[in-house]
């Protein structure tokens, strides 16, 4: 049933962090990119364009279920509340956990976080965004004192140099990449540099490609920092007046001459030098980075090595300049705004900062305010595996497929007393471990907000009524909270009330010392929320129409308002190759699929570009192993008992000794391909982000 009284509904794409606006013609049931949305100006990529083909009652979860038997909502939520209470009473609040998702809307995220951190009294709520951008968050916090993306997409149109690092944006963030192509067309003098171990679709438009050896990003950017210093290309005034610890960072970078970088990164010397010269000579530069940087045991150092180069040259807070992490998910950013990570509180505040903690406790009238950080995703599943966590509620994500070390995740869920799964679809490998299944509404049925990679908050709006008995995630959580006795704090009857409370919290006792400030939206009525137009935070008295660029006043959010350089000591990936496991495995997305395919897998047209998972291998490696195109191969990793079997794609786009396979396929879609099962728990010590770009594997023709 659709909302046919309205002609066109403006909403936002639920896939990547570009956050494209979409206009849905309700009667004709068709969609186009919103011409007025500043993220896409009418453009859509193929995934967004085929969204309506993914909407079908077939394969949807329609009714709550308890131990495989259908149940009423009252029975299901009563049981969830009871199990939560019993587990907390018997084992304490840290024996329960929520594992949530960048697919949730900000309002869903807000109430889940409020329930756990303010009322259950545990910070064991983490999100699949941990797998996506937690290293970028930690990098920003170390450098700027807050999780702040400095730039906007409009900076692309104004830059002289655009550096893409560990990002195949042409496939993963297509509309953003189209904007880069357009900027290049409008200004042919603009240079594009791509830093990636693979030759990708993004390389086609580049002026320079650096096919660095996997896991050597910190060496490259230490080399750049050192070069900038040696060539006196430093903005001395900016560094002196607005930053700390530059000397330590320069000292750490000193061993990395261009020659050394060329040798260690295994890239031609001339290319290294050319990149360094271009960065030094440009008056503006943007460094875009995503999973290739973040999904590493050096993820946070990777981010800070890049940020160091921007601080050294003052290429930040100015048009066309800045370090710019691109988020993978539609609402990874909104989630972190309301404290979706186990080490954060709502409104970007810190759990272990006494002042922040007391402020949030007061604002929420919290009954059991958490005092210490919770478990990040990998550690959470480790504790689940050990039996220390007895209750887990998984919302809108499929960790059996997306987390590393599938066998361990399966064992952990099998051994857990209570597993609750809220999801929209039945094709989900995690679902079979659930004792309690809760059908949730999905894109086109939900109302709420998301925040894209450039801090822009946009509305997702409902087009259809919920399918079956599906309910909104925020309603399910509030229902459970009420049944636990917290009716007053969760008495929300409309999603706009949750957004208003979130905005009020960002403004509460905030004298400008906290970056996330939505004070100008704090009194938004339901009517105003309904027509809310895309807007970039902060949205406050000084910037009632939002803020496109941060740090224009060279003031950061650290104690002394100065940005911090971080001295980077490069370290190798955790898994090193050896005789038994001689090849490096890298993973990523293909153009037309999304995550574990629970949505895109339903659209026949989205299978045309890449019909199956394939293993890309360099021709020399293929020749050594006597492999021909399409041969089935078996991939093994030391820790994983099960091989992954898939056909080969012989490609010069790979470096020798390095393989690539897509992340999307799983048991649901084919019997032997779940590539993340070959990865270990290796993760960044600061951010907890798993190293999903570098595993040591062996390969055998089957
Ligand atoms: Fe959706 Fe991203 Fe494509 Fe835009 S670029 S239509 S947000 S998938």
Number of domains: 4
Distance between the termini: 49 Å
**Which class best fits the helix and strand makeup?**
alpha/beta
Round the Cα radius of gyration to an integer and report it.
24 Å
Give the integer mean of the pLDDT values.
Answer: 95
Annotation, overall tally of beta strands? 26
Low-confidence stretches: none
SS strand fraction:
15-25%
| Helix coverage percent | 25-40%
CATH architecture of the largest domain: 3-Layer(aba) Sandwich
- Spatial order of the strands forming the largest sheet: 5-4-16-15-14-6-7
**Ligand types:** iron/sulfur cluster
Largest sheet: 7 strands, mixed
How many helices does DSSP assign? Answer: 22
Cofactor: [4Fe-4S] cluster; Mo-bis(molybdopterin guanine dinucleotide)
Family: Belongs to the prokaryotic molybdopterin-containing oxidoreductase family. NasA/NapA/NarB subfamily.
Keywords: 4Fe-4S, Iron, Iron-sulfur, Metal-binding, Molybdenum, Nitrate assimilation, Oxidoreductase
Domain 4Fe-4S Mo/W bis-MGD-type: 6-59
